């Protein structure tokens, strides 16, 4: 196994939705031993601590979009941090709600463009997050990052996306909660998307390996964004957007092991962890185990958990 320099960057983002608690996510990962798990696999681990948002305007509490300006500040800070970290190793962004990926993907895509390489994104999520601030009914911006980093309109005030990720370079796996507006937008897009019915019928490896083959053929860089709600809430309850029927522990580990075997992953998000909703840390520990699988832990190395 090739060792990496894993750069942990805390992103205590809690502005993308109204249910609070995701700001505790980064420190929960640290407490659950993420750094130690990666070090045991032979990786160098550098923890750069927690980011803070860039300077931003005041948010009116009655604005239709929840904490718009704070999210703009987070997007700028994360894009800058992601682009810088890519020069030094393998960044892992510890969240924090999923709006953080607007910044992380924009930043890693800037680095890929500077290297003359294509940026790809694997989105492991129950939701497509393909709304814009204009189309969002909820006003919660954690439902918008895919639209942002693919360059869709409607993000006034946000940092300009310098290197939008082409839609055909995005693959979403695990869908099971997509509203009408997002469904229509997805169907008109070039994004590859796979819902849980397809996974039930054909397995999770088939669409994943087809996407990885495209990344390899293009010599691309691959960012993986893993949302807690990709997993079934029976095994991962610590998320404010639970949707029944998610990936099993076995399916999730299979995805991570295929990703490691591919050697294509260059950056990663761990998002939407709300420790306030967890049960004795079981979700946090599972997410740490999945991250370790993505970085080379095999089934024979996996610890027995006692909750």
What does it look like?
The two termini are 30 Å apart. With 307 residues, the protein is α/β, with parallel strands linked by helices. Helix 9 runs parallel beside helix 10. The protein has ten helices and eight strands. The protein has a single domain, classed as Ureohydrolase domain (Arginase, Chain A), CATH 3.40.800. The model has no long low-confidence stretch (mean pLDDT 95). Helices cover 36% and strands 16% of the residues.
Please summarize the sheet with the most strands: 8 strands, parallel
Q: What's the number of extended β-strand segments?
A: 8
Overall pLDDT metric? 95
Structural category: alpha/beta
Q: Strand share of the residues?
A: 15-25%
- Indicate the CATH architecture: 3-Layer(aba) Sandwich
Question: What is the end-to-end distance?
Answer: 30 Å
Number of domains: 1
Provide a quick synopsis of the model.
The protein has 307 residues and is an alpha/beta fold. The chain contains ten helices and eight strands. Strands 2-1-3-8-7-4-5-6 form an eight-stranded parallel sheet, sandwiched between helices.
């Amino acid at each position: 196994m090739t060792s990496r320099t894993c750069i942990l960057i805390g992103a205590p983002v809690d502005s993308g939705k109204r249910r609070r608690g995701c700001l505790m996510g980064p420190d929960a990962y640290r407490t659950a031993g993420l750094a130690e798990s990666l070090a045991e696999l032979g990786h160098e681990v550098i923890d750069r601590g927690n980011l803070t948002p860039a300077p931003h305007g005041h948010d009116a509490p009655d604005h239709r979009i929840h904490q718009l300006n704070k999210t703009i500040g987070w997007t700028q800070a994360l894009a800058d941090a992601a682009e810088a970290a890519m020069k030094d190793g393998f960044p892992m962004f510890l969240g924090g709600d999923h709006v953080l990926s607007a910044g992380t993907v924009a930043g890693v895509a800037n680095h890929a463009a500077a290297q003359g390489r294509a940026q790809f994104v694997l989105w492991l999520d129950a939701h497509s997050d393909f709304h814009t601030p204009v189309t969002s009914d909820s006003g919660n911006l954690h439902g918008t990052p895919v639209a942002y980093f693919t360059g869709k309109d409607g993000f006034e005030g946000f940092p300009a996306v310098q290197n939008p990720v082409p839609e055909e370079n995005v693959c979403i796996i695990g869908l099971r909660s997509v509203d009408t507006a997002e469904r229509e937008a997805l169907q008109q897009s070039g994004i590859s998307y796979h819902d849980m019915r397809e996974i039930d019928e054909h397995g999770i490896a088939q669409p994943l390996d087809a996407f990885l083959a495209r990344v390899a053929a293009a010599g691309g860089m691959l960012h993986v964004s893993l949302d807690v709600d990709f997993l079934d809430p029976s095994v991962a309850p610590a998320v404010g957007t639970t949707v029944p029927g998610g990936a099993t522990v076995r399916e999730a580990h299979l995805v991570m092991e295929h990703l490691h075997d591919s050697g294509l992953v260059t950056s990663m998000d761990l998002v939407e962890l709300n420790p306030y909703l967890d049960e004795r840390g079981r979700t946090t520990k599972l997410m740490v185990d999945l991250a370790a699988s993505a970085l080379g832990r095999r089934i024979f190395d996996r610890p027995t958990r006692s909750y």
